[in-house]
Amino acid sequence: MEFRDNEAIYLQIAAYAGERILLGKWPADQKIPSVRELAAELQVNPNTVVRAYEFLQHKEVIINKRGIGFFITADARERVMAYSRERFMTNELPEFFRNIYLLNISMDELRESYEQFKAEHYQQPGA
Amino acid sequence: MEFRDNEAIYLQIAAYAGERILLGKWPADQKIPSVRELAAELQVNPNTVVRAYEFLQHKEVIINKRGIGFFITADARERVMAYSRERFMTNELPEFFRNIYLLNISMDELRESYEQFKAEHYQQPGA
Amino acid sequence: MEFRDNEAIYLQIAAYAGERILLGKWPADQKIPSVRELAAELQVNPNTVVRAYEFLQHKEVIINKRGIGFFITADARERVMAYSRERFMTNELPEFFRNIYLLNISMDELRESYEQFKAEHYQQPGA
Amino acid sequence: MEFRDNEAIYLQIAAYAGERILLGKWPADQKIPSVRELAAELQVNPNTVVRAYEFLQHKEVIINKRGIGFFITADARERVMAYSRERFMTNELPEFFRNIYLLNISMDELRESYEQFKAEHYQQPGA
DNA sequence: GTGGTCTAGACCACG
DNA sequence: GTGGTCTAGACCACC
Fold this sequence. Notes:
The structure is a homotetramer. The first copy, chain A, is mainly alpha-helical. Chain A has 2 domains: about 10-75, Orthogonal Bundle (Arc Repressor Mutant, subunit A), CATH 1.10.10.10; about 75-120. Chain A has helices at about 10-20, 35-40, 45-60, 75-100, 105-120, and strands at about 60-65, 70. In chain A, strands 1-2 form a two-stranded antiparallel sheet. Chain A is elongated, with a radius of gyration of 17 Å. Chains in contact: A-B, C-D. Chain A binds a DNA duplex through helix 3.
């Protein structure tokens, strides 16, 4: 995994976890990698993973079973969806609309571009 | 003017200037507010406006006539359009597509929401 | 039994044992549950019960008869009372007073709340 | 300032700030010490103060004005009162009642002890 | 000057 | 083994 430098690494890790949850790859009650494991895998300092997990724990997306590790909460999916949508609506969408207006980009262009994006990134293998 | 806290203030000021240029409110060759004027108006540190103007100057959108002030360059509009579009396409759009896919937001929802946004922000009163 | 997450589980188990002793439910010389029994009942790691029993043994509240099990000591009640009171007076009470002062909670409120607490938790049914 | 070792230092710092706010020593809109200042004063690592300030910021008790520092929010007092009371009621009070019941401590003893405590710690000089 | 982040490394309690 | 905390030190963007 490679990190963009315009966003804190620990937030990118949290976002990555959120994405896995939304995609159903980390179902409820499943144990997630330990701090040390994930740090080794991502080649970051364990403290950075700790910060990411603190964020998710604070959002009640994961929960710590002491001495054992972190687990996905029962309603993690709904929670991730909720705060992601919240963030999207208030932070990203107005900026996005402002940009496409000023740059004179039409919704039809977007639709086309989006189809291509989905095909590239989320293509189902059996298509 | 109020600033979002997820982006540097000087960049928001530069974006504000870019918007005025794109909307034709700051035409070519026009003098723009002095650093001190704008700092006072926006209630920010003058250094912050300096950084914004440095950014615009570096993009050749404004030019400094020493002792007089900053002026919009002849092809400012094209330049703003160019680098804004560049930034939009490479930075924002992929992230945006990823989000609407994960959050399951349809293009039809977006279209509707966009119409409302335009009505609220860019509606000319005498149309 | 459910555990609070602001205190070590083994200490909560030890406190639970102390409570039973103070309430006279575990009289002197009585055998207490084996480590494995209690671990199974509380659904915790046996090591956790071991630590709780070590704590109580160190306080001379229980004693190990090898091959047989743990037994309540003759003066267990007095010992529990002593160290609990010690802990209460030096650790909890000052913090408690500081809190009710800052939060502006009166002793009358407390008295009322306490009566309710006793009624809920320690009311004997046949009174 | 000296720290107890049964609670994280950063939480003790946050609690110290909360106390100052409740006592009116840090009124709304006031700037609080910078991370580095407070770290030097308390002789802890700056990161530890950062964690304390993160906690308070998350509770909306302080707010960061970028490049300037942290400031007490307008309703900081109410917020500190709210979450402190919440914590007190759910975490400390039941434990406290359980203890005084088991230790057979009367409310009259407490009242007396409390008066003494107040006299020692919060005595007004002009009495 | 301000806070924000990250690394490296350590120690600890807990299960 | 697990996470939680702290230190030391560094670099950075920003105001």
